[in-house]
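Human: My hope is that you can spare some time for a protein that puzzles me. I am handing you a single protein, as its sequence and its fold in token form. Could you go through the record with me and say what the backbone is doing? Take your time, and here it is.
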Amino acid sequence: STQSTWAQNKEQDILHFGQNFRLVNDAVRGSPYYLRSEIMSANSFSPVTKHQEVTLSGTGSLDLSWQVLHMDPERRIITELKPVPANTVIVLKHVQSNNHLASSNARYPTSFGGETEVCCHRFLQIQTKKKDQPPEPQNLWALVTAASGSTFVSYRSQLGGDNILEVVKQKLLQRGGSQGFRGLARTLRLLDKNRDTQISKEEFKRGLQVYGVPLEDTELGVVFSKFDRDGSGQVNVTEFLRTLRGDLPEQRKGLVLQAYKLLDANADGVVTLADLKRLYDTSKHPAVVSGEQTPEQVLALFAAGWDKNHDGTITVEEFVDYYSDISAGIDDDVYFELMMRNAWHISGGEGQAANTTCRRVLVIHNDDSQTVEEIKNDLGIGPNDLDKMRRNLEAQGIRDIKRIALASAL
């Protein structure tokens, strides 16, 4: 058994990952007080942040039990039941509620001065369906055994390069959504004085600071060394941003290329910026749907994000690059597909991803029978352009058309 194994290894008195334990302070008025948390209800919650309350209590049972988890979700399985090292960063889980101990950023006055509230809550950079996200700083703790905290190392210095990149990515998404990547790209490229896409470590640090994503010196060193492969003291801006953002998944890329094909009507590989602004339906953009931006604001940002060489045309590479940024902030493939189909009037899709913006019309056939038909891939077909609608339907094989009735005429 686990207990006998610990006994053989003389580890009975050592705390292990995943082992139930209690945190006790026996110096309070001579009686032991345990760290306790009660599952949140309408009558039980923390006074400041309204999360799950954490208190000290001399009584209790299950609500006094905690477990130590490794700070990296991907390493929790392999560290299960292994000894917990002192003075390292950990996550503390309340067993009964399966919630994590946290110190919120909300400050409030106490008898000891201004303090932050301790509660149980899993802090997340963005709400997502993904499980096992890297914990936020509010959920990170350390069991310090040194005489003072001077030997404790900052939690972020213990993160690997990939985890630090994830921290930067989430901060960018929190700060500016998909435009966070494009804004950072502009900032870093402004620092690239000779336009060779290479910047120094100090320029790299300053660019992140200017954009509101500061890094500690230790984590800056980890990230910088990950990209400075030849030790020249320079990093490639394009490679850094591409790695940070990630590649566009093939399924999503297919939708993006399908949209570009609809824009490039004559298949010459050139789409003008004027045509793009005229045809783009901003009403289905995520920022408009969420109420964060108006259609006009999205259109302005949309236009500013294209045409990197200022020649008035949009290449397929520029088009894919734009949607790679958008994709980085959308976890749900169904939502991304629906956004693309509705924005660019791409017919098809199944279930929740089915297109809803292509026009449906009532077709009166030559024998006076009636059917409702979809004007498929109707990008650029105006609401009263009956000739184009007829040609679209005929291309679908619907040729016995006597008359087309629009919704406004029904």
The chain has a mean pLDDT of 79. The radius of gyration is 29 Å. Residues 280 and 343 are 7 Å apart (CA to CA).
